[in-house]
Amino acid sequence: VPxxxxxxxxSPAPLCEVNExxxxxxxxxxxxxDSGCVFEFKLQENSEVYGFGLQLKGFGSRSRKRHIRPNAxxxxxxxxxxxPVPFFVTTExxxxxxxxxxxxxxxxxxxxxxxxxxxxxxxxxxxxxxDIYADRRAECETVIAASVPVTHGADIYIITxxxxxxxxxxxxxxxxxxxEVPLWGLGNQYRCHLRFSSxxxxxxxxxxxxxxxxxxxxxxxxxxQSNAYSCSFVWxxxxxxxxxxxxxxxxxxxxxxxxxxxxxxHPTSPLHSRLGxxxxxxxxxxxxxxxxxxEEAKNxxxxxxxxxxxxxxxxxxxxxxxGSDYTGHWTFPNCAQFxxxxxxxRYHNLFGILYGQAMLRALTQRxxxxxxxxxxxxxxxxxxxxxxLYSHEDFIRGVATSGFSGLLWSPEVRHAESREDMIRRVxxxxxxxxxxxxxxxxxxxxxxxxxxxxxxxxxxxxRMSLIPYLYTAFEDYRVKGRPPVRALVCDCTEQTALRDVxxxxxxxxxxxxxxxxxxxxxxxxxxPEGDWYGFFDGRxxxxxFDIETEEIPVFVRSGSIIPLAAPVDHVSEDTVFELTLCCYxxxxxxxxxxxxxxxxxxxxxxxxxxxxxxxESVESFRYxxxxxxxxx
Length: 632
Ligand code: GAL
Hints:
This protein is of the alpha+beta class. 22% of the residues lie in helices and 24% in strands. The strands form eight sheets. It has a seven-stranded parallel sheet. The chain has a six-stranded antiparallel sheet with strand order 19-20-21-26-23-24. A hairpin with a 5-residue loop joins strand 23 and strand 24. The relative contact order is 0.12. The site of beta-D-galactopyranose has 9 residues, from loops.
């Protein structure tokens, strides 16, 4: 019998049908053990396995252990991460979600004892070990074993589909569909130094505008509060003598405000007394740990923060909800007990999602913030994951792996080792789900001293140009569960050459991005079957090749139409995007879609506009067609 306190207890209603009968042809074992229970899923010999949430250290999971335990500093490729998820998908046309918040251990492609046959079949002595190994493997049963601790049962959801994209999309629909983001959320976000005062924030905002750096969101880090570790959620009077006035001024310049916080509540906080009965039995940095599984605790947070929404605070960065093994007491232990009945183990896996839900109630319109922990069934929450880790290579891998499990990842940019490093990192971030510059320990814009402001401006402008295209991809996420950014193997599961490609990804349906780090002078690119065009050089590409370029390698599918907007410095409710229809290859008969709405209202009705390569004008308050470009 499944226990209480599982992800579906807290998730929105599915947008897809769920049947109670198991699909045929998928071999599942189940047993109850002293330690909990075990599910076993039979795996074919040559298939690959993906998923398990955000994975910065590994891509495919075949022959790997995956531990579904949140950890901000995973030391190696064990599955632990900011956002581990008990969902995986195979190249065999099926995937499985286990509905539990426990620290499940998955063993992918492990071999069970022989079924009746021992040794090699022909009785000869093999001298070639590869041979012996192959023989024995054929006689054994390979499984994905999922060991679920404590509970003696769990609901499992088996999802079948044509390809990985189809299965992942259904998983996202099970989670209530993809998130609804505001149009401004797809622009660029800049986070200021953690000790900036309102005067410094305004001066930074002024420089951003005067340098012509497109930016939609200004983020404030811990220093906005009178106490930050743990949090008072009260504006610091010395640094921010009139925070409303500051927000008003930022609003006039077209910025939304995003506030950093974490949930651990300081004794001086006005929330503290209301949370006494609504928090766990351990404290963190002397602060209470609110039990967001309780509606009342969510409402305490929502009611308190709501007035900030009116002043211009449109998003939050929800920090520290993941925990780390290296930061001592910076989190609560697994044995913590919460008034809802959850223990520390399950609360660790649910914390980011429940906290995110609480803060959505504090905001009246759409938002697109950050959270450092997430987990199962998270697709509908408009937060991107981020990290204090900083390997560019791992950050690229995160963009590809997060798409397998209904998560969005920001390969945020902080400092850089060199000009090249800065440019390469910003290239990656503008082609990711969230374009975020997190200068929380930097007093000036990180590119200024490196002498590459012009290059960075051009990249951030390119992000603005891509908003209409990206907005359509996010609409497909919301309605169809289709991840806006995803690994190549998702769409092209049958193309085995793409199975190990961890450092390229689809950006929307028609673009493939192959980021480069500063350490690379050239890189190998593997493209799916068919013709592709270089986004920057307009040349035709196909198959596998090496490329050397200062741009980020981006390829557009032959036959597609990309609506590129003239960049604006921020998006407002009445922004009109001036579109150039960029047509690649033979586009006769092709269509592109753009989505029109007010860009901020939750559940607003959308109008989908269809574009052909010959479309001259559209009736729309949001878009105007100003030109056409052909690449053949
Ligand atoms: C970290 C967070 C950083 C920054 C910092 C401020 O926990 O990951 O992005 O916000 O706190 O102290």
